[in-house]
Amino acid sequence: MAKLRLSRRPDSDTIRKVSLEPALEYVTDPRGRLESRQAQMTFRMELQNGDQWSADYEKNFELLPEPFEVYPDFVLPPGEYDFQNVRLSYQLGPQRKLSGRVTYQFGGFYGGTRNEWSYRGRIETSPQLSLEPNVSVNRVELSQGAQGAFTATLLGGRTTFNVSPRMSLSALIQYSSFDSELLTNVRFRWEYQPGSDFFVVYSDGRATGLEEPLLLQSRSLAVKLTRLVRF
Questions:
Q1: Considering its fold, how many domains does the chain have in total?
Q2: How far is CA 59 from CA 22, 33, 85, 129, 173, in A?
């Protein structure tokens, strides 16, 4: 992978820095056959208030040696695929009570088209409590007509409560339409001494089908202890 960044700080009361970032990723198999290639050009603008705006252009090549299920009942046939994407995003500065990144992406997708809207943010309600919502909606059309189209949705959120500078409790809940599953994760972290942590993590996954809603599919409890030893 090769990447280059060209930056300039203009004499402006609004713009802090502008950047142009070309990049190229080239992946081959052990026999030297091209598997994946992505040429990307990113224009980024950082504002004086901490916000950031960016625009990305991507030209992609992907080789599928065998059929690939991209979504339930939607299988991509083997072959070589060339497609292009444009991504626009605006990120609110972390100093705000409400921050995060809003993104819109459109372009090709393995012989079809894709439109994606997403938001990943952070809401700080107090120094101890914060919320992190996450929403992503992908509309994909692989061929003409409704039979070649689907919408993939990901909804989630994380809540973090800082009991003290060394102790926190967080909970994550996430729904994915890909497998119609609701995932829950609760984590307790205690840094009992600098560099050493104690974790307790509970997770479960539940199906969201109409016949047996919230049917338990998986459940786990993990306890982890780390200790920093200095020599």
A1: 1
A2: 12, 18, 7, 41, 34
What would the pLDDT profile of 42-90 be if each residue is shown by its tens digit?
999 999 998 999 999 999 999 998 988 888 888 888 889 999 999 999 9
Domain boundaries, position 112 = 2-178
Domain contains 227:
no
Is the pLDDT score of 204 beyond 70?
yes
What's the mean pLDDT in 179-207?
93
- Where b means 16+ CB within 10 Å and e means fewer, 183-205 reads bebbbebbeeeeeeebeeeeeeb
pLDDT of residue 146: 45
Label residue 142 exposed, middle or buried (CB < 10 Å: 0-12, 13-18, 19+): buried
| 33 within some domain | yes
Phi and psi angles of residue 133, each rounded to the nearest 5 degrees, phi first? -75, 150
Residue 203 placed within a domain: no
Assess if residue 151 is contained within a domain: yes
- The model scores a pTM over 0.90: no
